[in-house]
Each structure stands twice: as structure tokens, then as C-alpha cells.
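Late entry, phosphoric acid mono(formamide)ester complex.
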Amino acid sequence: MTKLSVDNLLGIKHLTKGDIDLIFQTADHFKEVINRPIKKVPSLRDITIANLFFENSTRTKLSFELAEKRLSADILNFSAAQSSVKKGESLIDTVNNILSMKVDIVVMRHPHEGAGNFLSKHVNAKIINAGDGAHEHPTQALLDSYSIREKLGTVKGKKVVIIGDILHSRVALSNIFALQLQGAEVKLCGPTTLIPKYITKLGVGYEKNLRKALEWCDVANVLRVQHERMDIKYFPSIREYTQLFGIHKALLDSIEKDIVIMHPGPINRGVELTSDVADSKQSIILNQVENGVAVRMAVIYLLAEQIKRD
Ligand code: CP
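Prediction complete; structure with ligand written out below:
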């Protein structure tokens, strides 16, 4: 397979196993490139990319920007907070104005589920979803799987537990789709109030007890408690959440195997993970960030190839 089966990257739900394999093979090449003294290739000299961030981001925004620079694309950076969106301009008007500047690819983070999908039906550019509400965050799931593959050799057959605030997490849904496509077994762990009811239809298990979940898994992907998306109380207190679902060194050390610890960031240190776990040898959190650049280079490169072919 040399071509993605999709025209845009809106969600992992739309990808095939072949797409993921192609993205990872391409990312392997770019990972080698970004470790050279000259970390840049001229592949996308004729491509212009707009990064539209309607919601805050550190990792995703910087990672996309660096990936685009490493590929020699021209870049426009847009942050809603400093834009005419604040004067009431609509999403379509905003994007069409940007596209009239001859933009080929739009990378968009938006607080509303389906925003990327909506855009893809109304504008003539490739769309990459950089996170839409609590729906999907496809490049995060790709870099997560890529990091598991790098650490454990393969994703197939691995047991992955996703821990914490699943209800408000786009990372959880994209990870479930990506891990299942690659033949991993997935369980969720967290307060029942933070586990969406539809999740059982996705063929994942649920384990309420954190110790049992950790004893079962090869990889624990720990999610942030998303206070900003909570309009009601989902658990009595942060203290109680941490007692039941926080991972600390003594707990990790008492499990008789080396579980791989992951977190998409940003971390609430002392809530879902203590610092001695986040910064331990078992943690691959910064490898995830490093791999994000190569994986995003791969996604952008493969979509740009389609523009060149058309
Ligand atoms: N993982 C992630 O999406 O982080 P940011 O919100 O900082 O981009």
C-alpha cells in the first residue's frame, strides 16, 4: 500500500490497518531524518499549511508546526483567541478567507465534536483533525500506538488499559479504534461516572479496580482529569479520585512486571500520576512527544502526496 484510503484525517474510525501501517513505515523514515544533523527535507516546498487552533494546545500545535517546518512547507498559524472569531466571524468564513490565500492543508483543533468533518464538506483543502471536542484526536492515537510499537516491538496482542476521564476524552476514543485495528486488547479503568455508556458497544472491557487493571495490562495510558469540560461533579473530590485511580510509585513497584506508562499530556501531577511515576524509567511520556513529530510528518506527507497526484 502506497496511498492512504482517506482524503482527510478526520478520525481513526475512518482508517484501515493498512493506513496505520503506511503511516508508521513513513514515520520510521522521518524519525531517522529528524535525528540527522540536518533535520529537514524539501518534500513539501510547494505546499502551504494553515494551523487553526480554536482551543488551547502546547504539544499538538508545536508538534504540527515543527513537522511542517521539517518538511519545508509554508505555514500560517492561527489562534482563535487573537482573531476576528472574537468579533463573531463564523468558522466557514474564517476558513474560506484563509483558503483564499491558497492553502492546501488545514490542521484544526476545535472545541466542538465533528468540526473537522463539517469543514471537510465545505472547503476545498485537506483537513487534519488535531482534536475535536470529546470526539477524536487521531494523530495522538497514532503517536501513542507508534510509541507502544517502538517500546514493545508490536501493538498486536498487547493489553492496554486506558485509565481515568474517558467521558471527556477524544484521546480515549481514537486510541480504542487504533489499538483494536492493530489487534491489541483494550480495557478501561476509572470512576463509572466517567465511563460513557456507549463504550461497551465498542468491544472494550471495564475494570473498576486500578490494581487489577494494572496487574492485567502491558501498557497503562493514563488520561488527564478534564476539569474544564466538567459542568457537574463526577466524583466527590480530587483527593478521593487520586486515592482510587491515581498511580503512585509504591503501587507501581508492587505490581510484579514492568508496565509501560503513557500520558498524552498535559499531566495533572499528583492527581492521575505522581511525579516519580511520570518521570520514571517505565514512563514513555516524552518519547510520545518526540514521536509525535515523525508521525505528524508522515500524515502530512501522505496527504500532500495526494494533492500532488490530483
Ligand atoms: N496531547 C495533547 O493534545 O496536548 P495539547 O493539548 O497540549 O496539544
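The first strand starts at residue 48 and ends at 53. Will revisit in the morning.
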